[in-house]
Amino acid sequence: MIGTGPFLYIGPGGGVTIGALVVILIGGIVLLAVGLIVWLRLKRFFRGEGKAKRGAKLLTQVVALLAVLSVFGWMSKHRAKGDRDFGWANGWVEALSGFPDLFKQSVEEVQQLPQTYVPTPADFEPLNRVDQDVLTLTVYSNPDEGRHIAVRNLRNGEELYRWVLPDSLGPLKPHWRVHHPLLLEDKSVVSFITNRAPMFRLDSASNVVWRQDSLSFHHAVNRAANGDLWACVMQWERGGPYIAYRGRYLMGEKQVNFLDNSVARIDAETGHILEVHSMAEVLRSNGLEHLILRSGDAQDPMHLNDVQPALTSSAHFEQGDLFLSFRNLQCVLQFRPSTGAVVRVIDGPLAAQHDVDIVNDSTLAIFNNNAQENMGVYTNKGHNYPVSKEQQELAHYHSEITLYDLVSDTFRPLYRDLMATEGIMTFSEGLQEALPGGQWFLEEQNSGLLWVVGPDGVMYRDVHTSHHAGHHHLPNWSRVLPAFPLD
Fold it and tell me: What are the E-state strand segments in 27-142?
């Protein structure tokens, strides 16, 4: 979570947080206090003597309470419309008026399963027509609230191998996600707790080889040609670990503080940090600071979500170049760590994109979410316009695989009609990986659906069934393996 308030966070990905329990406790105390006050007043009134005097006093208090509630309701209405400013009282009015919704959300949160599980639609129909092994490396929650990393064959549902995260990595909260596992040649595996630490390596018997706690890891980790690891990270503050606003800019006299993102190179053998590059510094040194202003999220304007190293050299990239996907900048950067230069800004019909893969020496594949940054939620709450009877209708968007040609600087959607017909859409995350025969593996992350699509249509559509009836596992950036064990 962001800043110093992770325990008070309530919302997507938060699971059952201390914040939810605190809200429920406060709500319970308030209701108990109000009930006790009313009971004591009524008890004194009906006790006998001085009923007239006590009745007048009680009536006065009721009138005063109604007056206070009327003023509070009036202030709440105008704060919701945004047409009045009550200065220091704004925060109190908004907090108190929103408390019932927060209380309800907290109760629902405590009653739900951790968000590593997704409800399976009652009418869901799986499909499996794959005629070749599709080996995926995946992470899922086990019945003991621990985590398994496993090699699964989508062709027959068989689990070929399993690692169990040891207790020595520390207790895992039920809603924490272990992300994007990476298999090495000795059957050891690297993964991390996303938006937290550590990154770790387990040997083939699930023993910890190393752990790295000095950075906050998120989204993706991929291997360089020399075996090093490149990861999306955020840097802890000194004296942390916690995240703070490490970037800032001015618009006129207004200072905007924002979250910086970084990429880090990690030694796969030792877990040592070899180099870290701040993305804010990269933008500044390459004259690309203006990209920050195109984001609709002032707090997290970049949102780095993938780092893909070039394993070979071609006419369009050098071995060691990194292709970096930035969700909120709506672009991919080709970054050369050896010189600090941004070689290319890949900017086009991309919207909230995530995974970027190198297909060949002149083509990239980009998982284009095709989603508006705020998921269609209006940020201006002060106006409520009616829907016109003469609307202009634009496209019906779905997520898609977008191929980018490094030679012609052009984009081409792949299987657009198929993905639209199947309703494949994930507002956040999501990835693709190429398979033999023109087929592609897709992770529709929000729904938890896994797909294989190709020239013959949908070859596979299913979920990873969990031990909770009616729920399946939330995928955590599955990785397709060419073989197991690796050669």
Answer: 117-119, 127-128, 135-141
